[in-house]
Every structure is written in C-alpha cells, then in structure tokens.
Amino acid sequence: MNTLVLWLQNAARWFAQLLHPRRCALCRAALSVGARAMICARCAPRLRSDYRNTHALSVPGADGADAPLLYTGEAAAALKRYKFYRETSLCRWFSAQTAACLAAHHADWRPELITYVPLGAGRQWKRGFNQSEAVAREVGKQSGLPVRATLRKRPMQGKQSHRSARERQRAAKGVFCPITQNPAKGKRVILIDDVVTTGATAADAVRALREAGASAVFVLAVTRTPPYRKK
Ligand SMILES: [Zn+2]
Are both 156 and 135 inside the same structural domain? Predict the structure, then answer.
C-alpha cells in the first residue's frame, strides 16, 4: 500500500514538472524532469568559475564579513529577479548558498543570533517583503539560529537642501538605528544583507548593532560586487 502511495506521489510530481518545468535559478532554462539540482548543467561550472566569491570581504567596524556570491552576470540578474518578483525558489537557492557560507565560519564566529538590514517602511510596503529578511529566515531555519529584527531605518525626508538643521543632524547620525529592547544586546550577531558594494551601508548597520549592545557583529551578504574585473 505504502509503495503504491509513493509511486503515485512520484508520478504526480513528474507530471507537475512536465506541465510546469522547474527552471534553473540562474539562467531560467527548464531543468530536466526529475532533476534535483536547482541550477542547470551549463550554469553549474560557471557558478564555480565566475560567480563564486573567493576574495576576502571587509566591512568597516565588523568583526568579520563574507559573501558566497559575486554580484555579476546571471547571479546579479537572478538576485534582481528575486528582489523584484519575489521568486521563492530563488530565495531558497540564495539562502542555501548563504547558509553554506555561514557554516564555513560557524566555529570561528560562534554566532548566537541572525538579523538583517531593514528596508524603509515605504519601500517594504511597495515591494511587499524584505529580501534580506526572507534570506535571514531561511538561513535561520537551516542553521538552527534564532532570527530577530534589531534595526530600523530612520525616516528621510526631502532633499538635503530642504532639510532643517535637526533633520541634517539626524541624517549624519546614520541611516539605521536600533529598535528598543534590542535582542542583539550581549549577543554575537550575524547581519544579513543582499548586496555589499562599498560596505558603507553595512558599516552603518554594524554601528547601530554595536549601539544596541551586540558583543560581536559579522556581516554575511548574499552577494558582493566583484573586487576586480573578471575576464
Ligand atoms: Zn542555468
């Protein structure tokens, strides 16, 4: 009886994949029916040669930083698709990459809590979700670490020239500030970001986490812009 149920389940999955083929996370090519990998045979070697970040990442003020992927080519295009169209299969793929990167640092970083770079209220409302939070939640599931909100974005109003002195002062204090009764207090914290470019935004979030009382802060970005030109 159980064998029959299993057989039926497999057959149903096979037909579902035939009707709605799963697509390669990077290039969107249809994956062969029954395939378990999330990227196609053409992209797998390119992931290793072109999209894997192998260079040290440093974020000012952080105790450590790393990113599994380079923000370039199809990896960058896939991240944009994830961000703007909220493709859940892509969220799983990016999260798996990020969780593997965290696992490589786990013994050294000894993290106790995962948090994420917040979006401004307006942007989050428009987009419907925070891409860094969604990755953080998946990485939390895979690593067994709790995931908490710790930061918020200060509201920015108008152009610099139209701002009052008090608003300019607030802007100079940084983009992010800690929420009250902060869960990061006394904890070794992983900060998840989607792309690290200059590191300035991540550095500001690190500063706010220190202000919240975090005992150590590590930045884990899904992607980083390439530190050099790839041929
Ligand atoms: Zn592909």
Answer: yes
User: Ligand 1 centre from 44 Cα, in Å?
Assistant: 7
| Count of domains forming the chain | 2
Q: What is the pLDDT of residues 3-35, one digit of tens each?
A: 888 888 878 767 766 667 788 989 888 888 777
- Same domain, yes or no, for 193 and 170? yes
State how far the Cα of 106 lies from the Cα of 132, in Å rounded to an integer. 20
Same domain, 161 and 58: yes
| Residue recorded with tokens 């991540």 | 202
Tokens at 204, concatenated: 């500001």
Tokens of 4: 């029959």
Per residue in 189-225, pLDDT (tens digit) is 999 999 999 999 999 999 999 999 999 999 999 999 9
Instruction: Answer yes or no: do 58 and 146 share one domain.
Output: yes
Q: Find the 160 Cα to ligand 1 centroid distance in Å.
A: 44
Query: Does pTM top 0.70 for this prediction?
Result: yes
- 148 part of a folded domain: yes
Shared domain check, 73 and 47: no
Query: Cβ distance 177 to 206 under 8 Å?
Result: no
Residue 131 alpha carbon to ligand 1 centre in Å: 22
